[in-house]
Design goal:
heterodimer, A: 326 residues, mainly beta, four-stranded antiparallel beta sheet, 0% helix, 52% strand, B: 825 residues, mainly alpha, 41 helices, elongated
Chain lengths: 326, 825
């Protein structure tokens, strides 16, 4: 250890003006050459801000959730279409092409929880959407854009995992069977085989509800955070069985969101302790603690080019450039 | 008269006559040749009777005559140095002892460098080179004891051992390298081995021999302090030779036994130091300690109690030697008893220097390692009693090193002496010494080492499996992506994460009074902690508010107890107290000093008071204190990184300002400390004098002159520090005077720590009080102090005390020089 560690980094810039706590963030465009890169943020007061990363100003504000908190934002791979999930039990599909910002469709949700949805889109016209279902422990799978309910994933009667807290739809490279990872209220993470509607494997990762998870399908390894003081890293073997590889202690309890960078090199967590923590994904070595926010951080997002954004209860969005992709 | 004898006498007389009168080289050559017959080793040697007669009666006289003839002209009588060769052969082939004595006598008898002296010296060098010294000693060994002439032997011993000194005296700068002690004594060692070899051979042949002459030589050489040189050669050879040979061992034992009493100590000390281990020592010495009282005294008393400069292996050899034989083991038990007695005596603890205490402790541990449980059980009560007495004395000591020594020995010894009892366990920091001592206590350290290495390895091992499972869970995935991952570790250099602390709720009080209230009444521990942590900063920020409650706050802090395990509680409390004292020095110092002698305080609190006073005085006397912002605590890492980051933006900003600003005049920017008065000046008296007021009046719970000498030592150190910090103040003179009186009253205190404090106090008086005032106002005290310092510098058992006294004396000297140089022009 010859050189002392570099001092903690400062944010590249900070976006202010949401005027309420930020609950959802999503990067879109940029890398695929769809014009200037944008950052979307969803606020507690139901507004979706569209920020230009070039001018660092909000270019548009979408109001579609009647003042209820926006919890999830996701663009479709075709572009120009945005999904926003709000606590008004509505999931809106926006058309953003050519400066439009109108709701083209919406799905009525039946769960009042904080669980965010997840989509699986293979580039076709059709895509799969997973949202919390009507029953408290159910997950509903919809075929979009037709809004056909494909199935409802309901745990076995004796499992009692509680409500689903976070969802992640994915597909192994080799097969076309959609799989769903769901983190539950009892701290367990379950892998669902959507087409067979059954749980392939379930593993207890935490003692508190799982609040965020992300999965790296290349390495068949995922990470989850909860209200407790540790992250859990788990992996999936060839028999589709989950197993916990290890836990990593945090200084302060509480994780509200967790994301792996698209290049699978690092991951970031949004902490209740106002800090964003960055880890090396392969070794889980802590790399940085970003202490900028003055209230708990609600969400983190990575852009395709590696930019990291964090949204916090203190109404600010900080944007960081760490370990740039080479 | 025996015709043989008269014939020899006649021949010798004729030869001497020829030598003295003739100038004819051939004649002299043939005469010498005819005498050579008496030495044997020619083609037609003389009869044995004649040879013996010549050697006994005429040889020395003839050699002296030869010495007398030596001159350049005489040697030139025949070409090619034939005559010189023949001349030398008499010395080299005749009876060695006589030749040696004549040579030495001749060399010493000649004054100043001359041709003859140089020839003789070269001859002596050749004598040594050809191994004649062995012949000298061997000749003495072969003599029948009754025939030996003690006076001659003694002279011979003196000359053999004193050769380097004598030649050094004679030759001064012309001395040859062979005669330097560092070369001569190893040679002598080699010769001794050869003599012993000859002795062993002749004993094998059934001839009687005595080694007492060799013993005398050895003893004398060791008394002369040449143990290292001679034994350094002798011991390794003997180690090899005695291995597996009883005869050699017996010769060796005899060799040591015959050493004269006054040389026993020197020889044994050298032997113990030179032998590589107890087994070898046992081979070389045999049961010497049982036979020879003097040797027993040296081995069991002198080397253990009176000397302490030896390295640990020497102790191990010594005690191991005692343990190796069943006859000698009672001596070991006895030694342990005496060692523990000494170890347990409180006066020894007080007066023995630390290295000796360490030496004793090591000896005890080694003894314990050697002794069996049965042997220990027999004398357990006595051992335990002295052990406990010693532990008590040591734990009472004010020197941490002594305390630690007590703990280590107590732990080990109690476990051995009283294995059934509950084990003693102390908390002390592991260091080199403690590891060494603990290693001594285990009888076979080699066998134990793997188990000792165990715990140090485990923490590392505990981390690795964790990582391995993380990586090992997805082997197939790693193979796919490995190309990009192998090289990727370097680019992810972690940022500084030292600021990552546990998040505290925001309850830190914003006002001093809130803090006081939180610290006194709060049941909310988070609030209590937050108040404690915020206090120092608050005090510095709101000085006026602090002054209103300063004494109350000091009281609260002084009585504060650690209720929760706050990180760095002691430091926080101390810094807060210092901050309060600095903010309102007069009143708080008055309060603190009054509390120092009050009842119902723990020693810890009293020492805290002293520490706080010192630190506050230091802060107050720091030059330029006001111009700078209050010092940030060093325990605050987040501020440090930003400091290092600052220059980058600062440079940019400065550059911009320089470019935009127009200046009308140039000059260097004002920097440097503005002079400001020493704030300590006004209040030094409050800090200092109350502490001196009542040190000699014991309270029920607090007796500075009795048991609480640790606090007394701290007090002395504090007073010294306050004196030093009061440099350049007006009150320094009365302070110095009072301090010297204090020192005078305590100068013979038995505790080393106290004496150190006093000595440093004297030094600070010398440094702080102006030289002229020292001379005018306290010359008497200075004179007294000086004689005391000189005494301490010479006689004090504590090394640090001696050092401090020497430093103070140096200061005095400097002061004297300064005064002289002031008065002289």
């Amino acid at each position: 250890m010859a050189a002392p560690p570099p001092p903690p980094p400062d944010p590249q810039f900070v976006l202010r003006g949401t005027q309420s706590a930020v609950h959802a963030l999503h990067f879109c465009g940029g890398a695929q050459g769809q014009g200037c890169p944008l950052l979307l943020s969803g606020s507690q007061r139901g507004l979706v801000h569209i920020w230009s990363l070039q001018t660092r100003r909000a270019v548009a504000i979408l109001d579609g959730h009647r003042g209820q908190c926006v919890t999830w934002l996701q663009t479709l791979p075709q572009g120009h279409q945005l999904l926003s999930q709000g606590r008004d039990l509505k999931l809106c599909l926006w058309d953003l092409a050519e400066g439009r910002n109108t709701v083209v469709d919406s799905v009525h949700l039946e769960s009042v929880g904080f669980c965010r949805g997840s989509i699986l889109a293979g580039g076709q016209q059709h895509w799969t959407l997973a949202v919390p279902g009507r029953g408290s422990d159910e997950v509903q799978i919809l075929e979009m854009p037709s809004k056909t309910s494909v199935c409802t994933l309901k745990p076995e009667a004796d499992a009692k995992p509680g409500m689903p807290m976070c969802l992640e739809l994915w597909q192994a490279n080799s097969s076309s069977r959609p799989l769903l990872l769901a983190g539950y209220e009892d701290g367990s993470v379950a892998l669902w085989d959507v087409s067979e509607r059954k749980v392939c494997s379930r593993v207890a990762c935490h003692t508190e509800p799982v609040t965020g998870l992300d999965f790296d399908s290349q390495k068949a390894r995922g990470v989850s955070g909860s209200a407790e003081k540790a992250l859990a890293v788990w992996s999936l073997d060839e028999q589709q069985a989950l197993q916990v590889c290890g836990t990593h202690k945090l200084t302060n309890p509480g994780i509200s969101d967790i994301k792996i960078r698209p290049d699978h090199k690092i991951l970031a967590t949004a902490g209740w302790d106002h800090r964003v923590r960055v880890f090396h994904w392969r070794t889980m070595k802590p790399l940085a603690v970003l202490a900028f926010h003055s209230a708990s951080v609600h969400c983190v997002a990575f852009a395709a080019d590696g930019l990291l954004a964090a949204g916090s209860k203190d109404q600010r969005i900080s944007v960081w450039s760490l370990y740039p992709r080479t | 008269m025996d015709p043989v004898l008269s014939a020899v006498r006649l021949t010798v007389r004729e030869a001497v006559h020829t030598l003295s009168s003739s100038e004819d080289g051939d004649l002299i050559f043939s005469t010498l040749g005819s005498l050579k017959r008496y030495l044997g080793e020619t083609e037609n040697p003389a009869l044995p009777g004649e040879q013996e007669e010549f050697a006994r009666v005429h040889f020395s006289a003839f050699l002296r005559c030869l010495v007398g003839k030596l001159s350049p002209d005489w040697l030139e009588l025949l070409p090619n140095g034939q005559l010189e060769e023949l001349w030398a052969s008499f010395f080299l082939q005749g009876p060695a002892d006589q030749a040696f004595l004549v040579l030495m006598e001749a060399i010493e008898g000649m004054a100043g460098p001359s041709f003859r002296l140089m020839k003789m010296v070269q001859l002596l060098a050749r004598f040594l080179r050809e191994g004649r010294m062995a012949a000298v000693m061997e000749g003495q060994c072969r003599q029948q004891t009754e025939l030996a002439f003690p006076l001659l032997q003694e002279a011979l011993v003196t000359k053999v051992v004193g050769l380097p000194d004598r030649l050094g005296n004679c030759l001064q700068r012309e001395n040859l390298a062979e005669f330097f002690p560092q070369n001569y004594f190893p040679l002598l060692g080699e010769e001794v081995v050869r003599v012993l070899q000859a002795v062993v051979d002749s004993l094998r042949g059934g001839l009687d021999c005595s080694v007492s002459f060799v013993s005398q030589v050895l003893g004398k050489a060791c008394v002369h302090g040449r143990q290292k040189e001679i034994l350094g050669v002798l011991v390794p050879r003997l180690t090899v030779l005695t291995q597996g040979s009883c005869l050699w061992q017996r010769v060796c034992w005899r060799l040591v036994e015959c050493v004269p009493d006054r040389a026993v100590e020197a020889v044994l000390t050298g032997l113990v130091e030179a032998t590589p281990g107890p087994e070898v020592l046992s081979r070389l010495l045999g049961n010497l300690v049982m036979k020879n009282k003097k040797a027993q005294f040296v081995m069991t008393q002198k080397l253990l109690f009176l000397q302490y400069g030896f390295a640990t292996p020497v102790l191990q050899s010594l005690l191991g030697y005692l343990a190796l034989d069943s006859q000698r083991r009672p001596l070991l038990v006895q030694a342990l008893k005496e060692l523990l007695d000494t170890w347990g005596s409180s006066s020894a603890v007080r007066h023995a220097p630390l290295p000796q205490q360490r030496y004793l402790s090591k000896a005890i541990l080694i003894c314990l390692a050697h002794l069996g449980d049965a042997e220990l059980r027999d004398s357990r009560d006595g051992l335990l009693a002295s052990l406990m007495a010693g532990v008590k004395c040591r734990l009472d000591s004010s020197l941490p090193a002594v305390r630690r020594l007590g703990m280590i020995v107590a732990e080990v010894a109690s476990a051995r002496i009283h294995p059934e009892g509950p084990p003693l366990k102390f908390q002390y920091e592991e260091d080199e010494l403690s590891c060494e001592m603990l290693a001594l206590a285990t009888p076979r350290p080699v066998a134990d080492s793997p188990s000792e290495a165990g715990p140090s390895v485990t923490p590392v091992a505990a981390e690795t499996p964790d990582k391995e499972t993380v990586d090992g869970g997805v082997p197939q995935a790693r193979l796919e992506g490995s190309d990009s991952e192998l090289d990727s570790d370097d680019e992810f250099v972690p940022y500084d994460m030292s600021g990552d602390r546990e998040l505290k709720s925001h309850k830190a009080p914003m006002y001093i009074r809130d803090c006081v209230e939180a610290l006194t009444t709060s049941e909310d521990w988070e609030r209590w902690e937050a108040a404690l942590q915020a206090l120092e900063g608050l005090v510095f920020r709101s000085q006026a508010a602090t002054r209103e409650v300063s004494v109350e706050l000091a009281k609260v802090l002084l009585h504060l107890e650690e209720k929760t395990s706050v990180v760095g509680f002691e430091g926080l409390r101390q810094r807060a107290l210092v901050a309060v004292t600095v903010t309102d020095p007069a009143r708080v110092a008055e309060y603190l000093t009054s509390q120092f002698y009050a009842v119902n305080y723990s020693l810890r609190q009293r020492m805290d008071i002293l520490d706080v006073l010192t630190l506050a005085a230091q802060e107050l006397s720091r030059p330029g204190r006001l111009s700078r912002a209050p010092q940030r605590s060093s325990l605050d890492p987040p501020s440090q990184p930003s400091c290092t980051a600052a220059p980058a933006w600062r440079a940019v900003v400065d550059e911009r300002i320089r470019n935009k600003a127009r200046r009308f005049s140039k000059g260097c920017p004002r920097r440097g400390l503005a002079g400001s008065p020493n704030e300590f000046n006004v209040v030094a008296g409050y800090f200092f004098f109350p502490l001196l007021r009542r040190f000699d009046k014991p309270l029920v719970t607090f007796d500075l002159l009795g048991d609480d000498q640790l606090v007394l030592g701290r007090l002395a150190h504090t007073l010294g520090a306050l004196m030093y910090l009061a440099v350049n103040t007006t009150v320094a003179v009365p302070m110095g005077k009072a301090l010297l009186e204090f020192v005078w009253a305590l100068r013979f205190h038995g505790d080393g720590y106290v004496r150190r404090g006093l000595l440093s106090a004297v030094s600070s008086v010398l440094l702080s009080v102006p030289a002229e005032r020292l001379l005018t106002d306290m010359s008497d005290e200075l004179l007294e102090a000086r004689s005391w310092l000189a005494d301490v510098a010479e006689k004090d058992p504590d090394e640090d005390c001696r050092m401090l006294a020497v430093k103070a004396l140096l200061l005095l000297e400097k002061l004297k020089d300064k005064l002289l140089s002031l008065s002289s022009p």
